[in-house]
Amino acid sequence: MSELTRVHLLRHGEVHNPTKVLYGRLAGYHLSDLGQAMAERVAGSVADRDITLLVSSPLERARETAAPIAEALKLEVGIDDRLLEALNVFEGLTFGVGDGSIRHPKHWRNLRNPFKPSWGEPYRDIAARMLAAMDDARRDAAGHEAVLVSHQLPIWTVRSFIEGRRLWHDPRRRECALASLTTVTYDGETIVSVAYSEPAGDLLPQIGKPFSAGA
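RESULT FIELD:
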């Protein structure tokens, strides 16, 4: 008989980023107080689940989101570079019209092809590395559940790939809120469903959401 395995893709909590830069893969960006509360809320929501594997992106905000889950479930946190945020040439800059980096002509060449995208890691490459990480988690947690802590763009890209949507998209339309769970269920080696939930939904900021290419 086949066995069901669930792989939960957890986006990290809110980050302390008062200057509103695209932090991408930069070191030194940690969860805010609200982000810590989000992480604790997620840990409480999964504490009674059959989770046997916990793996995180190496970035601080992801590891800090994983920490309360590790404590609640008495699990070690594995680190997997395949869960990293996508590469982005605007890393470390503000992004927007007004005083953002796209008002400078020197950056326009990086915006020439939104379908690839020309400003960063190709969508298909993101989907491929995420699927590989998920498949390893499925194997290692076979018959149980795993949590992989990652970032908005990688999670949304792999979900779009699984569900057969085009990979290029409007970032404002991603269904992948802070501290949300995108749950992929496997029957044996086959993906049979994708579900989405927001265990910390009531903690989400209520005032405008920033552009999230570096989330």
